[in-house]
Write a structure and sequence with these properties.
CATH architecture: Alpha-Beta Horseshoe
Number of strands: 4
Radius of gyration: 17 Å
CATH topology: Leucine-rich repeat, LRR (right-handed beta-alpha superhelix)
CATH class: Alpha Beta
InterPro entries: Leu-rich_rpt_Cys-con_subtyp, LRR_dom_sf
CATH superfamily: Ribonuclease Inhibitor
Helix content: 40-55%
Organism: Noccaea caerulescens
Distance between the termini: 59 Å
Protein name: F-box protein
Number of helices: 5
Oligomer: single chain
Largest sheet: 4 strands, parallel
Strand order of the largest sheet: 1-2-3-4
């Protein structure tokens, strides 16, 4: 609640925010981020275990200036949501997105085999 309150007051002027491993980051924070942080360009939500995919989607939809998002430690992300994330313009780091790009590994292996 304290993080959400801070964002309500100061979020409009932030362009970078690191909430890495902040335990209280949850639904209230997501709502405040989406509502107040329109200028945010860089956001680190790594290890924020209380956030859901829906809350993350809300943040991505509302923070239109977002360029970079760190999501290290997010192991509870569904396959379908990973595919949606891969289509955004935001540079996302920390997620294991191999399922989205798995076909590339097969392609590169077959190319390597042809040139060996």
């Amino acid at each position: 609640v304290a993080v959400a309150a801070f964002l309500e007051v100061c979020g409009g002027s932030l362009n970078q925010l690191c909430l890495n491993n902040v335990r209280d980051v949850g639904q209230d924070t997501a709502i405040s981020l989406a509502k107040s942080c329109k200028r945010l360009r860089y956001l680190d939500l790594s290890w924020c275990r209380k956030l859901t995919e829906e809350e993350l989607a809300r943040i991505l939809n509302c923070c239109s200036s977002l360029e970079s998002l760190k999501l290290y430690g997010w192991t509870h992300v569904e396959e379908e949501f990973l595919e949606k994330l891969s289509r955004t313009q935001v540079r996302i780091s920390g997620l294991k997105m191999t399922s989205v790009f798995a076909h590339l590994d097969d392609t590169y292996q077959s190319i390597d085999a042809k040139f060996c």
